[in-house]
């Protein structure tokens, strides 16, 4: 496998569109950013597996030029990423995801770009090839990850500005930026990124709400300190460390039992609306006692709920406990979305600024 093979694959998939990024990919061989040992997770079909350059160099190189995530760190460095176990905390993102984000970022000649999350350095190298390294600043919170990225970039012949620090704070001494490119999941857009982006500049990030799937969010900064924009397809990224979720806790707890006629599988269609109305409620599908359930919890850890799906049932069991009745809140939010006419995800967007962050429907002034 070579860069040409990967470029052809990404063109066929529709992720790679512009000649500028095709030239950048040829200038930045991906294998230079793949560690000797790691865990490979193919996009779509394919079985995750360990890769080891010494043990099987052909498999290692094939993984380097496949549309696959390469997990490079587990448990913030405490685990072995090549085992596939533990929490994945840093990676070389799949090429299709990387290129689709860069196409959406759409930097212009001479733009200055702030990248949040250096990782292996591959995306910083692509940006450097496209714009020139002196116009690229990349910040990485993990010192060991940043040190390895610096080595990778040097071997590839690029020297963007590298900063070790909390990406949530940005890099104010190098502002203003024309583009902010974020490679980690974000639930609440940090105000610092808006402040460090010039009016008319773009912030592109994986919006990872507490409820439902992540989305690409492309926001444009206004003249009054806000950022406004829409969502553009799915995105699933490791979280910004300062915004990691507390999780769901015990999924099989006892609580107050009721029943609902609303099929829990139906609720997913309203995920953006529910995330906008209930921003502090976590929601995901999980298997509990052999049944697929919609699991809910609040960020404060005070309340939880689950609703189980049973094939062919007239109604469905709900168990919930704590200070709030989270299933009741989610059901009410879903029915409100139905009353709006079940608007599609392409009709929603996000506005963020000093007053906070809100989801909007159809126009930024119509926040929900």
Automatic annotation (TrEMBL):
SUPFAM superfamilies linked to this entry: S-adenosyl-L-methionine-dependent methyltransferases (SSF53335)
Domain of life: Bacteria
Enzyme's top EC category: transferase
Keywords annotated in UniProt: Cytoplasm, Methyltransferase, S-adenosyl-L-methionine, Transferase
GO molecular function terms attached to this record: protein-L-isoaspartate (D-aspartate) O-methyltransferase activity
Subcellular location: Cytoplasm
Principal location class: cytoplasm
Cellular component terms (Gene Ontology): cytoplasm
Matching InterPro entries: PCMT (IPR000682), SAM-dependent_MTases_sf (IPR029063)
Gene Ontology BP, a term: methylation
Catalytic activity, EC: 2.1.1.77
Family (UniProt): Belongs to the methyltransferase superfamily. L-isoaspartyl/D-aspartyl protein methyltransferase family.
Protein name: Protein-L-isoaspartate O-methyltransferase
Natural source organism: Actinomadura verrucosospora
């Amino acid at each position: 496998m070579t860069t040409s093979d990967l470029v052809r694959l990404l063109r066929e998939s529709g992720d790679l569109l512009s000649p500028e990024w095709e030239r950048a990919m040829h200038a930045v061989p991906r294998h230079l950013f793949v560690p000797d040992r790691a865990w490979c997770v193919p996009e779509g079909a394919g079985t995750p597996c360990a890769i080891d350059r010494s043990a099987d160099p052909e498999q290692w190189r094939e993984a380097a030029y496949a549309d696959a995530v390469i997990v490079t760190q587990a448990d913030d460095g405490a685990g072995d990423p090549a085992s596939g176990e533990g929490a994945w905390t840093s990676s070389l993102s799949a090429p299709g995801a990387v290129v689709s984000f860069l196409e959406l970022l759409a930097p212009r000649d001479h733009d200055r770009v702030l990248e949040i999350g250096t990782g292996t350095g591959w995306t910083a190298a692509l940006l450097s090839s496209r714009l020139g390294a002196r116009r690229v600043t990349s910040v990485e919170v993990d010192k060991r990850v940043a040190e390895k990225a610096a080595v990778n970039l040097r071997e590839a012949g690029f020297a963007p500005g590298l900063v070790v620090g909390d990406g949530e704070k940005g890099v104010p001494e190098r502002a203003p930026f024309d583009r902010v490119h974020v490679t980690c999941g974000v639930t609440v857009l940090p105000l610092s990124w808006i402040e460090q982006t010039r009016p008319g500049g773009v912030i592109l990030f994986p919006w990872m709400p507490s409820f439902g799937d992540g989305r690409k969010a492309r926001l444009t900064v206004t003249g009054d300190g806000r950022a406004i924009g829409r969502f553009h397809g799915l995105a699933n990224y490791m979280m910004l460390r300062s915004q990691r979720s507390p999780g769901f806790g015990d999924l099989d707890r006892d609580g107050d039992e009721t029943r609902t006629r609303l099929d829990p599988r139906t609720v997913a269609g309203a995920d953006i609306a529910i995330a906008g109305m209930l921003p502090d409620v976590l929601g995901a599908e999980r298997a509990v006692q052999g049944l697929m359930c919609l699991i809910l919890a609040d960020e404060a850890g005070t309340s939880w709920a689950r609703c189980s799906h049973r094939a062919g049932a007239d109604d469905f069991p709900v168990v919930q406990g704590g200070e709030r009745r989270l299933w009741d809140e989610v059901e009410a939010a879903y029915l409100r979305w139905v009353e709006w006419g079940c608007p599609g995800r392409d009709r929603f967007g996000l506005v963020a600024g000093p007053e906070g962050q809100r989801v909007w429907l159809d126009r930024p002034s119509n926040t929900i």
